Amino acid sequence: MEDNVTANSSQHVIVATQKYSGPLPPADELKKYNEVSPQAAERIIAMAERQAAHRQKMEFQENKDRRDIAIISIIASTLSVGMLSGVIIYAISMQSEGAAIAASIGAIASVAGLFLYHKKKKE
Question: How far apart, in whole angstroms, are the C-alpha atoms of residue 35 and residue 39?
Answer without folding.
Answer: 9
